[in-house]
Amino acid sequence: MTSPTDPKDFSKLRSVAPINTDPNAAPATVWDKIKQNFAMFIEVSKNRPISETLCLKEALIFGIPGSFVCSMAAFLLTTNRIRVFQTAVISLPILSMGRFTQCRAAKHHERKATILVSKMIRAKTLTDGTAKQAEFERLFAKSKVELAELERQLDEIISKQQTGGT
């Protein structure tokens, strides 16, 4: 029989991060700020397959051939085998982490845009037919020009993809 303070019992417990309902909320403490800055790298340490980690497979697909190209360029420039090996070893993590960071930042911006659009839809449905409808329409009118330009650009991209144009 184990006592209530047995260390074996504590190993079965897991810590659970609190659920943050507002992803855009400012961190409460300095430690929270540090954790938020490195949150994208936590995904890598969760012991999942590479294909399930967001952007990691893409980063490696970009980094490995990029490292090969860098090492070939170093060989053509120096013909020094040690320098070629050093270039390959150094360029792989730099290219991979650069692409990983860029991809995660893009996904973060996409998520923020999705949240913004859902908030706009929710505000529109809540204000229709109320006294606040005019306020919402005035707020929405400020962004109509930018949204119309974005829609035009997206339509252009979609039509190019469908016709096979470059």
TrEMBL record:
Transmembrane domains' residue ranges: 59-77
Main localization (coarse): mitochondrion
InterPro entries attached to this UniProt entry: Cox20
UniProt KW Transmembrane helix keyword: yes
Coiled-coil parts of chain: 133-160
Keywords on record: Coiled coil, Membrane, Mitochondrion, Mitochondrion inner membrane, Transmembrane, Transmembrane helix
GO biological process, one term: mitochondrial respiratory chain complex IV assembly
Superkingdom in the source lineage: Eukaryota
Subcellular location: Mitochondrion inner membrane
Keyword Transmembrane on entry: yes
GO cellular component: mitochondrial inner membrane
Family statement drawn from the similarity comment of this UniProt entry: Belongs to the COX20 family.
Name this protein carries in UniProt: Cytochrome c oxidase assembly protein COX20, mitochondrial
Organism from which the protein derives: Rotaria sordida
